[in-house]
Each structure stands twice: as structure tokens, then as C-alpha cells.
Amino acid sequence: MTTQVRLAWGKNREGRLTHITDVSTGKGCRCECPACGQPLIAKRGQVMRPHFAHAVTSECSRAPSLARIVLNLLARRAMHEVDALPNFHLPEQAYEAPSLYGVGAGERRVARESQVFIPDRVLEPEEVGLAEVPIDLLLESADGLRLGVVLHGNLSADEVGKLKHAGIPTLCYDLEQLAGLDVTAEQVLETLSSHERSRDGYWLYSRIAEDELAKALDDLEERREALRAQEVAERRRREEFERANRERRAAMQIRQRTPTDTVLPLQVPSEPHRSVEQDRLAEKEKLRRRLLALVDVHIECWSRNTLATLAAEEERAAALSEAKQGARARLQAYIPAADEIWIQEALSPWVKELAEKGADLAIKIWWKQRSR
What we know:
The chain is α+β, with helices and mostly antiparallel strands. The chain is built from ten helices and 14 strands. The protein has three domains: about 55 residues, no CATH class; about 150 residues, no CATH class; about 100 residues. The relative contact order is 0.07.
């Protein structure tokens, strides 16, 4: 680019940019290169367009960035010399929140809508300790808010990191099309003053968006932790359920191997320490016998004191229903709440049938016949 367009600007002794048309011809221009600082000579012949050239025949040591440096200096000059600083239409400050499971595109969220920044003055980055920060323009509003402006979009990751470290919200207005060595200050100012800049500009660093993104990441991590805890609890619940199922199946296999019409005596192992399963079976047998005795006694009392005095069939049916409810109530009162599930799952089928029929008089006869 620098070889195709002639350099139209040099830096005078006061350090200000000076156009080729405002200086004397030859070395009398007393200007230096804005990029490398080497002396320039002004060439204002009749054939070629007026331009500056290096007095030394060697190439400029910073030739690749010369046009960009000129653009930067012209922008600062234009902003300092203008009667009223142009307003900057700031684009919305948005960020992309990652998805919950980290798969697929994230969610775009707007931290702040588009606004208008009204600058009050132009600061020199070198004067406020930001010489190492790659900012072309540093603007400050009347209430002390600062805005950095970069006029090209070719910042490296390290340069963007410097912007974030400085904490200056920075916009990029890519004016690469103006980065010619013969661009004028009026062109730069006209472009910066355009109300269409909000469409072209984008945020290189937005503190508001960064803060909102940090909050979103914290919330996302909390949700992920809650999901992980829920998954662990669900896995443990399934494992406990499967363990209980295995124990029930083992107990059912033991009952199937034991005849239902014979109450086998509890086998006490000869080892000094009985297993937990043997203790559990012993407790089951003890509770089974107590349940049978309780139901049998209740039926005896009911049949002796109530059924004999009832002549009508309807009264018998009512008394029988009352006796059934009484038997169930006695069973529930005797067995602790923690062991209620044991009645449904651990007792043998004929004991469960006895408990369900309650104080039915036929049960007493059936039980006595079965026990012979």
C-alpha cells in the first residue's frame, strides 16, 4: 500500500502533521517521517503528484504501518481542531452466554442497548498513562466517562488483552479504506462524524458485557452443580432401589424353598456371631407368630361375644365388617410405621391373606385346618 500511494504528510519540528502543500520544496521542509522519524524531503515537481520522500535512500523501517500511523495522527489532529466534537453512536453491548451443557451455539444476550456518547474533550493516551495501550483516540465525556477508539481492525490478541487490562471500553471503527498516505484530515473527520458509524463499529472491549458474562458464567456453574448433585442423588436412589429389589428376590427364594404349611423352627447357627440376614429372619418369624396370635384372639373374642347374639343375617354381616376393621386396626397399631412395608413384602402369601381378611370367621376355621 505504501508503494502505491505517495506520502502526503510529514511531521514538522513541533511534532504536528503538515501537508505537502504547506511546506517548502526539498530539505527546506524540515519534516520527518511520522513512523520512523527519519528526515524527509518535499518533492513538488510538475510530473508526479507532490509528496514526501525519505532523504536517505533506504526504505522506511516502519513502512508497513506508515499509513496507519498517519491515519491515527490525522484523527487526533482533526478531533483537536474541530469546533465541536462529533457524537458517537455506540452499538449495543452484547455477549454470548454458553449453553448449559456446553454443546451447540450459546445464547446472545444484550447487556446494554445502543447509546450516544457525547465527548467533551480528547485525551492523549500518553498523558494519562496509556501509552502502551493501542488506542488511536481517547475521548472523555463531561461526567468523566472514557471511550477508546481504534481506527483499524487488525489488533492482535495481546493488544486486545492490553485494552482489557486498562479497563477502557473501546470501539473499533475500521477505517482501513482511509488508511492511505494521501488521506486528508477532512476525510477522517467526516467519516468519524457520520451517523452511520454505529452500524460499522463494534466493541473490542466492553466492561459491562464482560461483567454480565462473568455473572452468567457463575449462574451457569451453579446450575451445573445443582444438576450434578441431582444426578448423584438419582443414581444413589436407583442403586438403593436395586439393592432392595435384590434383597426381596433373595427373601422370596428362601420362602419358596420353605413349605407354607409347616412352621420351621428357627435355626440358630453354631457360630458365635450370627449374620445380619439370620437375625432378620428370626425377627420376621417372631413377628409372624405374634400377628397370627393377635388375629386369632380377636376372632375368638368377636365370635364368642357378638356373633352368637345376632340372629338376623344383616346384623351378622354388619358385625363381621366391624370385626374386620377392628382386626386391621389392631394390626396397624401393633406394627411400627417403619415395618408396615415389611408386612406387604416379607410375609408369606398365606399370612398376608390372613391379614387382609381380618376377623372373618371363616379364617379361623381355615387356619385351624391348615395348622393340623
